[in-house]
Automatic annotation (TrEMBL):
Homodimer. It is found in: Cytoplasm. Belongs to the transcriptional regulatory Rex family. The gene is rex. This is Redox-sensing transcriptional repressor Rex. NAD(+) binds at residues 100-105. Its main location: cytoplasm. Residues 26-65 bind DNA. PANTHER family: REDOX-SENSING TRANSCRIPTIONAL REPRESSOR REX (PTHR35786), REDOX-SENSING TRANSCRIPTIONAL REPRESSOR REX 1 (PTHR35786:SF1). Residues 89-190 form the CoA-binding domain. Residues 219-270 are annotated as: Disordered.
Amino acid sequence: MATGRTHRPATRSRGIPEATVARLPLYLRALTALSERSVPTVSSEELAAAAGVNSAKLRKDFSYLGSYGTRGVGYDVEYLVYQISRELGLTQDWPIVMVGIGNLGAALANYGGFASRGFRVAALIDADPAMVGKPVAGIAVQFIDDLERIIDENGVSIGVIATPAGAAQQVCDRLVAAGVTSILNFAPTVLSVPDGVDVRKVDLSIELQILAFHEQRKAGEENGAPAPAAAAPVAPPVAARTAAAPAAPADAPGDGRNGPDGDMPAVMPA
């Protein structure tokens, strides 16, 4: 079976939009479930509902693959599984290295879905000498000093980073220098990479913060509609302004509530 460096998916050369590429795994997951139930065909509406998108978007996405279905019948499930798998490059073996075998890294190593989707964990790597040799998910952890050799021997082009944030960029640089051109980053930091290297970031804390925002909004709606914004104050006539109380001396300390313009705080709360 070919390895990850012998072939690259043709999605870019064929002009498939990135948004469509991001939805292809959703379609593949839904189609795989249908295939496991021996469902031969599926309509665009049924498949769209299973994938969580609207049917018009699904049909547009499939048009980039050259698959238009059959009126009154729908799409052939097995053929679509093959077609999307081929487009995503999943008809070949993709060896990956995972760096950082702490709690998160160990959990990822034990995830059973990699192999079934065409990804073989070639090596687990950590910088802690105490971890070296310990089996995780049936694979002995190797020392970070051997990173470049491991990548070269296994023909790795995809790396997974699950290190602390402070170590992630250095690990990224070493992966790229060794020939890795795609990185899945679980570290809570933004990585800098050269052109030609793709990075996908997964930050669970950010996703939870977004959910917290929606929960707060729903709680506010349940407790009543938010108060309407106050109307802008109407400026008093010129005469009224000149008759106002005397201004404080120039060197009088402010009360901390007004900004330099005297109308609003200089720094609004975040």
